[in-house]
Amino acid sequence: MTTDIDEARDWQGNDIDCASCPHRELLSAGLCELKKACAQDRYARRLERFFQQNRALADAYLDHPYFETRAVAAGYATVFLLPKLLQDPDETVRWSAARRLPKRYLLPLRSDPHREVRIRVASVLSDDDLRPMAGDEDYYVRQVVAKRASPALLPLLVLDPDAGVRREVARRIGPEWVAQIAMDKDGEVRLEAAKRMSPGRLLAMIGDTDWRVRYEVATRADTYELSRLLDDPDPLVRELVHSRTGFTGAPRSGPASPNAKPATEPSS
């Protein structure tokens, strides 16, 4: 049985005929090969191999009706011809051209209609060039910004609606912001803040509602400060506190952490 990948078809689904190809002379020279390296094929990998071996022909394919052909050709064409592709209707072509151009050509793509282009743009820009993207409508674009931007730019994202963005901010923002982030509504964000706190400041989170935060407190706070966690609702927290303090008695009466809530499922 013949599968689609075993066939040599052009972008319109027609069988490829080497005899009618304008580059048929390359076949005998070993510079193209059916189902392996072909300018007429619809598969990007075969197009890639063709232009790798025949870079001088790439310029002629920047206006090809098939987006994959334009995108691959843009990786090998003369750089001076690429700016026009920044207006290409296909996002793959726009990015293929942009990644070979000087940074100033990337800046207009910060507002590209396609999220994948904006994600890729954000992954190569830094600091002031990234500032407008801190308000991008797509959460993943903002996550990339949070990973790329300098700590000085991260206060713009402290109140971001996406917890994943705020977690990244908590890992990298200046230490003067950690106490504020420790009050975040998301437990994982607070945990990232807790990991950056000194043992003394960490005590402020001893009554956190998230067992992971209390576990972080139990891990690093001074042992003489941990009595409130001896009868913590979470068994892992209790076990750690008992191990660190050497307490072997029965649990104390009354809740250890007034704000702590029992886990709804076994801790892991």
Automatic annotation (TrEMBL):
Domain LRV FeS4 cluster: 8-59
Domain of life the protein comes from: Bacteria
Pfam family, one: LRV_FeS
UniProt region (Disordered), positions on chain: 242-268
Gene3D superfamilies: Leucine-rich Repeat Variant
Name this protein carries in UniProt: LRV FeS4 cluster domain-containing protein
Species in which this protein is naturally found: Rhodopseudomonas palustris
